[in-house]
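Appendix B. Chain record.
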Amino acid sequence: MDTMTPRKPAISEKDMAREEAGISRIAWAGGAAVAVVTGATLILLLSTTTEAWWRYGVYAVLAAVPLAYALFSNTVVRRLQIALFHRYLEQLMYQLTDLQEMAYRDELTGLYNRRHFQEVMHMEVEKAHVTKQPLALMLLDLDGLKTINDEYGHNVGDVILARLGAAIARHTRADDVAARLGGDEFGVVMPATDKRGAFALARRLWEDLERTPIQINDGRTVMVKVSIGLAGFPWGGESVEEMIQWADADMYANKVSRKLALEAVLSRRPGDVSSAEEEYLEGN
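C-alpha cells predicted for this chain:
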C-alpha cells in the first residue's frame, strides 16, 4: 500500500519570523552605518577649509558609498530574502501535503478513502489501455459487521475495521492502493497484476483474516469472515464501471455461496456433518 512520504521537520512560523527580523536588522544596520559614515565624513570635510586634491577623492568615495551599499543590498540581503521565501514556500507545500493526506485518508483505518480510490482507478485504467499492462481490482466486504456491533458494541466494530485495514495494508505491495470505500467495504487497486496475482492476494487475505482471530481490547477474540470479489483488465472489464460491477458481482456470489453452504450444513442432522466439512466451512 502507498505510505506517506517521510517529511523533514517542520519549520515553525516563529523561527521564520525570527529569520525575517534578522534580515531586516542587517538591512537597517547597513543603511545606518552608511548614513553615519557619510554624514561624519561630510561634516569633517565641511569643517576643513583647506583646499586639497584629496578632498575630491573623498567626495567621489562618498558618492560611491550609497551605490556600493545598494549593490550589497541587492546581492546579500536580497539572496537572504529569497532563501527565506523558499523556506516559506517549502513550509506551505508541507502543509498542503498534510491537508491532501487528510482529504484522501480514512481516519479509522489509515487507508485511502473512496475519493482517492476512484481517482486512482480512472488513472490506472487509462494507463492500462495505453501500456497494455494488466490491472487487477479487489473488493472486500466484512461479513456480519452489524451482528458484531450489536453483540460487542460499535467500539469493537471500529477496532475490527481498523485491524482489517492493517491486515490489508500488510499484504499489499507499495504500488498497490488500498482504500476503505465506506462502512465495511474495502478496495485494492493492483497495477501490473494479472489474474493469478490477484487470486494469490485474495487467498493470502482469506487465510490471514479467517484463520486468525482478532483480539479486542478486553482480551476477547472475534473471528471475522470476509467476502472478496476480483476483477481485472482486460479479463474483468475494460472501464472503471465495468471492473467495479464485475468485482462487486463476484463478491456477492462469494458471499451467497458461503451462506448457502453453511445453510446446507446446518440443515443436516448433527451426525451427518463430518469434522472435515466443519473445518472447511469455518475456513471459507
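Further analysis of this model is presented in Appendix C.
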